[in-house]
Design goal:
Elements: H1 7-62, H2 66-76, E1 81-88, E2 93-96, H3 104-107, E3 122-130, E4 133-145, E5 152-161, H4 163-213, H5 228-292, H6 299-326, E6 334-336, H7 338-355, E7 359-364, E8 371-373, H8 375-392, E9 398-406, E10 413-420, H9 448-458, E11 462-466, E12 474-480
């Protein structure tokens, strides 16, 4: 099984390795330079001490006054200057301090050659056993020349303790380690924050991509940075919006295609019905009328024949509505005030409203622009909606008709709203009430609202059911003000 490591973890690991390498390399270089600097400083200091010692005792050395040299040496010996050795011109130990008496390995050997020049210097580090412990010592030996003589008279060797230098080096290393640890911790904190800053937007992009792959195009990534990640997020959001718009267009096209297929199927059915049923039905209807004209028929027989005629009329009405629904006719466009079409539609239903004592309330704004529509077809739309409201409202009910301007600029529309106080339509049926042959009433063919939607869409408008605060149903019809359908 392959181990999956997140981008945040990988970034942190690689940055940690890089940080450790860089900090280690920097500290190593600094430590080397500091150690060399401290050591060079000690060498210069020791060289100065050796020269002072040579100058102080050069006169005594010329007179072979070993006692004075011995006394001068003992005065200079301390914790830092561990020993001093004077050699004659033959590199034989002449005088040395008492602390190294018996330590031949210290004073017996001179490291300067016999033909040493005045600028010759010998540096040597070694471990010596002094004061009951092993100590690290820096030995510095220089030649002694007497003024006026070109030959070396002898040499002086001093031994400097490196303990203080070691302590200084340890303090320097400790300080560098503390600096390195502090830098490492700060670097890790910065790396973590940077990794989070980089990985979080990437994770959001990944989540958004996964959601898009599952069909959720409404996901937006909130990244406010002005860097490449911000540009990527903005491009991603634009892509999501375009995909959502494309999907909505495809769904709308798909719905229209399905609707067209339904209309085509219904058209074929209507043509078949018109051909196979309408003509024989007309013959039956005429024969029944002739039989009814016979005075010899009894009342019961006439009553049955009258019921048969009513059934035939229902069939003819259904065939007519079906043919009207499937027939795609052109629009006879003209400019009309919406209020005029609404009033004409109400007048055609006024008798029915009076029978149920239904109150009609109008809320039509003044100064509404005229719309370019087919007056007869729009009147048919309003009639279908008003007829549904009439059938849904009980005695003493109420129907409210309103019209107002909606939108702005080129998108201006007239919003017509027809609401009633009836029993209402279940939410689950809202998407189906505009489908052909779908009805919630015990009678009817389910073509009224389907035909209304077809006419409204021919005018590039929209018809839909909207929610109401109170009981009943409300239909909203949006009709464009500008342009031709």
């Amino acid at each position: 099984m392959k181990l999956r490591i997140s981008l945040h973890t990988r970034f942190t690991i690689w940055f940690t390795f890089l940080l450790v390498f860089l900090v280690g390399a920097i500290l190593f270089v600094i430590e080397k330079r500091e150690v060399n600097t401290i050591f060079e400083e000690l060498k210069n200091k020791g060289l100065l001490m050796a020269k002072n010692m040579a100058d102080l005792n050069s006169g005594s050395l010329r007179l072979w006054d070993t006692e004075t040299i011995q006394a001068n040496i003992q005065e200079q010996i301390n914790e830092k200057l561990l020993y001093v050795v004077f050699y004659d011109l033959y590199a034989t130990p002449l005088v040395y301090n008492q602390e190294i008496a018996g330590k031949k390995e210290i004073f017996s050997v001179s490291r300067l050659p016999g033909d040493a020049r005045p600028d010759s210097i010998s540096f040597q580090t070694q471990d010596v056993y002094l004061a009951k412990r092993v100590q690290r010592v820096l030995e510095i030996e220089i030649p002694i020349f007497v003024r006026g003589s070109p030959d070396k008279w002898g040499s002086v060797k001093i031994g400097l303790s490196l303990e203080d230098m070691r302590k200084e080096i340890r303090r320097t290393r400790l300080a560098l380690i503390l600096i390195g640890v502090s830098g490492f911790l700060l670097g890790m904190i910065g790396a973590t924050l940077l990794a989070r800053r980089i990985s979080r937007p990437v994770k959001k992009l990944v989540d958004g991509t996964v959601r898009i792959s599952k069909g959720d195009f409404s996901r937006k990534i909130e990244i406010n940075s002005q860097d490449e990640l911000g540009n990527l997020a903005r491009s991603f959001n634009e892509m999501s919006a375009r995909l959502l718009e494309t999907r909505e267009q495809m769904e709308e096209t798909h719905k229209k295609l399905i609707q067209a297929e339904k209309l085509a199927s219904i058209g074929k059915l209507a043509a078949t019905i018109a051909h196979e049923i309408r003509n024989p039905l007309t013959s039956v209807k005429l024969n029944i009328q002739k039989v009814l004209e016979d005075d010899r028929l009894e009342a019961m027989e006439k009553e049955h024949l009258a019921i048969t005629q009513e059934g035939i009329g229902q069939i003819e009405k259904f065939v007519k509505e079906l043919l009207n629904f499937t027939r795609v006719s052109g629009l006879q466009l003209a400019r009309f005030p919406v209020s005029q079409i609404l009033e004409e539609s109400v007048k055609m239903m006024v008798d029915s409203f009076r029978q149920k004592r239904i109150a009609i309330e109008r809320k039509v704004d003044e100064g509404l622009p005229e719309v370019l529509v087919d007056g007869d077809k729009m009147r048919q739309v309003f009639l279908n909606v008003l007829r549904n409201a009439y059938e849904a409202v009980d005695q003493n009910g109420k129907i409210i008709i309103s019209a107002a301007l909606a939108g702005n600029g080129q998108a201006k529309k007239i919003r017509v709203r027809i609401s009633d106080s009836g029993c209402g339509i279940p939410d689950k049926d809202w998407e189906n009430i505009f489908e052909p042959f779908f009805t919630t009433k015990p009678s009817g063919f389910g073509l009224g609202l389907a035909n209304a939607r077809k006419i409204v869409e021919q005018h590039k408008g929209v018809i839909r059911v909207v929610k109401k605060r109170s009981a009943g149903t409300a239909f909203e019809i949006l009709i464009p003000c500008e342009g031709e359908p």
